[in-house]
Prior knowledge:
Oligomer: single chain
Helix content: over 70%
Number of strands: 0
Order of helices and strands: HHH
Amino acid sequence: MLNKYFRAIVGTFIILSVILTVYVHQNWMWFTVFIGANMLQSAFTKWCLLEIILQKLGVKK
């Protein structure tokens, strides 16, 4: 269940950042870079802030 929420939230953030980049300002692309960098570091460190937040909100693994 946690994996489904995680993917849905990350996917929504990426789509939102691309829309904001196209229609608001190019600097919103840094939000997409931030998301990608967090996903990359979590692959190596096994630590993800979003996962911790979701667990504290009661989402089961």
